[in-house]
Amino acid sequence: MDLSQARAALKAARRVAVLTGAGISAESGIPTFRDAQTGHWARFRPEDLASPDAYRRDPDLVWEWYAGRYRDVLAAQPNRGHELLAELERRKGAGFFLATQNVDGLHARAGSGSAGGELVELHGNLLQARDELTGEVFPLAAPDELTLPPLSPGGQRMRPHIVWFGEYLPVDALDAAQRAFAGAEVALVIGTSSVVYPAAGLAAETLRRGGAVIEINPEATDLTPVATFSLRESASRGLELLLDDA
Ligand code: OAD
Prior knowledge:
- This protein is of the alpha/beta class.
- It has helices at about 5-10, 25, 50-55, 60-75, 80-90, 105-110, 170-185, 200-210, 235-245, and strands at about 15-20, 95-100, 120, 125-130, 135-140, 160, 185-190, 210-215, 230.
- 2'-O-acetyl adenosine-5-diphosphoribose (OAD) binds next to helix 2.
């Protein structure tokens, strides 16, 4: 498959499934998980903050770290890549499905999930917290009104609404993603290293059912050798090239 064939396949497809990772937010200046460990936080490994054990040991410390990342993502803006995926959703309507591994909420802010298709945040969302007792999810207060740890309207302590190391992905979200990728004529895999489950598994599902997998990533990944077509570009440039006429 070459670029013009990839463009034609995407244009013709009625069912499109997309998986994004940290790379699509790079152009918004959101540091990746590991790059976020600067200054005071450089002495912690992400695994020592983003885990149920860490939270049991020191909830205030974990909340401080998440509150910092929350402020960072609110200060950032969705980029052209996020916008083009919202545009693709407008064109495909109910046939469009987007699964993201990112917790920055930028896809939703660009309009994804409310343009006729579906958005699923596989790893949760930095802008939300959930009641530790009931599991109910609430938006965090604005940064200047945020008190830590945040309490639910019922007065219970809340934890970050994030899938931590050692925790399972939400079953409903994963099921929906697996169905969408199995049924997709074209799957796009954008800005993810494709080493962490479920990235590799979702694309394999599309290929197994005869669909095409198009990767956009400036670097080669484990998915590259099996992808139907691989665009060695940034997320925004790659989407511009693909959507030219989709
Ligand atoms: P990674 O940090 O593993 O990979 C980011 C990918 O983005 C790499 O393959 C880069 O080559 C690519 N990239 C960099 N700049 C880009 C750009 N401008 N446009 C497109 N791609 C670009 O991030 P993820 O694959 O998202 O899990 O990582 C998946 C999960 O692993 C994360 O959600 C996190 C981590 O452990 C949890 O937090 C549970």
